[in-house]
Amino acid sequence: MVKVAIHEFAPAAEIDDAQAMEQFQKQWRTYQKLVDSDALSHREVAAQLHAALRTVETSFSILDIACGDAGEIKHVLADTKVSHYHGIDLSEPALELAARNLEDCPFQVDLDHGDYVEMVERRPDPADIAWCGLSIHHLKTDRKRDLLTALRKTTDRFVMIYEPTLKEGETRDGYLERFGTVNRPAWTFLTDEEWRQISNHVTQCDLPETAETWLALGREAGFAKATEIFHDRTDFYSIYRYDV
Ligand SMILES: C[S@@+](CC[C@H](N)C(=O)[O-])C[C@H]1O[C@@H](n2cnc3c(N)ncnc32)[C@H](O)[C@@H]1O
């Protein structure tokens, strides 16, 4: 059995905090409910990423920014020419799950515990492809551009991201209102407490952009081509692809 090691880049205090761990487990269970019920279109997103990776005909390395528990990526990478998978996440418990999920994969696996912004900007580790599912939207617009610029310098083929997207002309407040109006009645599998967790997180942390801005950020970062390749059925998220 191949054991996957987690490289440490975060202060140990964060990891030992039992309360933080409990909080993580609660929030992760709720997030997992959204993934399992496909409320965030993870299945179609996995299919899109898999299709893109299948077109790469030579062996490749992939950086997974905010990899979480790597539960989906294992299947996405099956039947591709991946030779090296590098996941980064701030959450130690998520990485422990990722290590288990990726045990015995027939390619090299590195998992780094730390802040992806710092790691991508300060410790550039080149990869052929970079992927991020649902995390870059926590950054302010300028920081999104900085991160994409750093990725442009360290990625040899393409970057793909799946992120919340404002409708054209929609404000963040309008997005938050739409999020509640559409999703609260649709997500019947969440308890009131779980809904509050998600709703608080989205209200406090999410900084979605319009498709136009996501594409412009990629071009400003120096990518030759920026394309919206998928818009999810719920009208909240899109995949953007940036080619070097
Ligand atoms: C919504 S989950 C997405 C997980 C997975 N990529 C997916 O698509 O299902 C967001 C992940 O981003 C991680 N995260 C958030 N900010 C981060 C940061 N600055 N550095 C590293 N990981 C971060 C969280 O720990 C969490 O695992």
What does this structure look like?
- This protein is of the alpha/beta class.
- The chain has one domain (6-243): Vaccinia Virus protein VP39 (Rossmann fold), CATH 3.40.50.150.
- The chain is built from ten helices and nine strands.
- Strands 1, 2, 3, 4, 5, 6, 7, 8 and 9 form a nine-stranded mixed β-sheet that branches.
- The structure holds S-adenosylmethionine.
- S-adenosylmethionine binds next to strand 3 and helix 6.
- Residues 62-153 form the Methyltransferase domain.
- This is Methyltransferase domain-containing protein.
- It holds the Pfam family Methyltransf_25.
- It comes from Methyloligella halotolerans.
